[in-house]
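Structure (tokenized):
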């Protein structure tokens, strides 16, 4: 990749596809759009939406939101298994979660 400059959007989409492979969770569709109440959401039909503002966040916060949302494709709720998996892939995710929840725009949900 040396000498190739990817746009923030391309970098983000690349990150999503890496996580998708890693978690073996394949969304049908990935959408990056303006969202003001949430950082991300996913539908039962496998469509995952991410807030455009994520592109401006540090990679660590992007990773948390991406992994969280992709795991919902396999585990739609926030049960014990979901949290165990999340902790396996994003150790200390709670700290990141708190950073995102105290976002200046007023406590957005990760969904
Ligand atoms: Zn969630």
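Design, position by position:
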């Amino acid at each position: 990749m040396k000498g190739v400059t990817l746009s923030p959007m391309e970098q983000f989409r690349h990150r999503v596809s890496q996580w998708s492979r890693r978690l073996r969770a394949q969304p049908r569709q990935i959408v990056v759009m303006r969202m003001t109440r949430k950082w991300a959401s996913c539908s039962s039909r496998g469509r995952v939406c991410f807030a455009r503002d994520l592109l401006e966040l540090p990679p660590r916060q992007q990773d948390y939101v991406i992994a969280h949302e992709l795991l919902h494709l396999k585990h739609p709720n926030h049960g014990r298994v979901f949290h165990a998996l999340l902790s396996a892939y994003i150790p200390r995710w709670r700290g990141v979660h708190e950073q995102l929840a105290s976002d200046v725009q007023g406590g957005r949900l990760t969904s």
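Reviewer-requested clarification: The beta strands are 29-33, 40-42, 47-51. The chain has one domain: 8-101.
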